[in-house]
Design brief:
alpha/beta, Metallo-beta-lactamase, Chain A, 10 helices, binds zinc ion, Metallo-B-lactamas, MBL fold metallo-hydrolase, NDM-1-like
């Protein structure tokens, strides 16, 4: 996977995601006066990799790092970033809950057994940090409830809480001048549930919030940036399946039949997965 910094627009650079240890995309928005970083990375190493890459562009005068949500892969690099840290108030609350956790193999396995941690995250943490595991969780310095605006000089960023099934503290960042929307993981299904799930009303509410912003580029944390066309395709599939799940409720067969009739083809793997998540959401409500 690509380990070099990429240029997204005139004023935005990013380090592509790395599925090897579930590293999310890290981005820097460079205003005339200051630079804003989006997400702190999954470890000291990840944060340092990004900061070193930014150094080559002589990026200095950092405003802060904004966390899209509390999950380890977005927040464990905060200590190494050593910057003012901004996050939704729930993000801080969730990080406070895990601040005293022990991250040894034994402790991780124990939490997985008790259902407090997910097998996947546990494996990825072990892989990212190796045996010499020094994890320091750092809390955000500034929190917000709904939204905040940051002016970097010639570039304004709107940070807005949107919630959603993936994590209810999820926030998105819209960069008006560049027409780029950073979505974090907010569109992905829940992970801290027995099965990954989508709830019909949560997805509708989330899409409404996202559609308030008119962007040309959409950045989801664990994939490469999407064009408007690609993003609309993705959102339309999600909306269509959401509507059909509402119509057919737990009748999986009827849902799949109507969906493939409307699309005039068999479902893609992604569509199958989305259907599965809505079925899971319906079974727990
Ligand atoms: Zn996440």
């Amino acid at each position: 996977m690509e380990k070099n910094l990429k240029q997204l627009t005139n004023r935005i650079h990013y380090l592509p995601p790395d599925p090897e240890t579930d590293r999310p995309i890290l981005s820097a928005i460079c205003g005339i006066h200051q630079t804003l970083i989006i997400d702190a990375g999954n470890s000291d190493k990840h944060a340092q990799l990004f900061l070193d890459a930014l150094d080559q562009y002589q990026t200095t005068n950092y405003h802060s790092v904004v966390l899209t949500h509390w999950h380890w892969d977005h927040s464990f690099g905060t200590n190494k970033m050593n910057l003012l840290t901004i996050a939704h108030e729930n993000t801080k609350r969730y990080l406070e809950n895990i601040i005293d956790y022990d991250w040894s193999d034994e402790a991780l396995d124990n939490r997985v057994e008790k259902g407090l941690e997910i097998e996947f995250c546990s494996e990825m943490i072990k892989k990212e940090f190796g045996v010499d595991r020094n994890i320091t969780i750092t809390l955000p310095n500034i929190t917000f409830k709904e939204k905040m605006e940051i002016d970097l000089g010639g570039v304004r960023c709107v940070v807005q809480h949107v919630g959603g099934d993936h994590s209810d503290d999820s926030s998105i960042i819209f960069v008006e001048e560049e027409k780029v929307l950073f979505l974090g993981d907010c569109l992905y299904p829940s992970i801290y549930t027995q099965q990954p799930l989508y709830k019909i009303d949560h997805v509708r509410h989330l899409i409404e919030s996202i559609e308030m912003f008119d962007a040309d580029i959409y950045v989801l944390s664990h994939e490469l940036p999407l064009t408007k066309e690609q993003f609309i395709g993705y959102i339309n599939a999600l909306k269509l399946i959401c509507d059909l799940a509402d119509k057919h409720q737990s009748n999986h067969l009827n849902l799949v039949n109507e969906l493939s009739t409307q699309l005039n083809r068999p479902l893609s793997q992604l569509e199958e997965e989305i259907v599965y998540c809505f079925m899971n959401g319906l079974s727990v409500s």
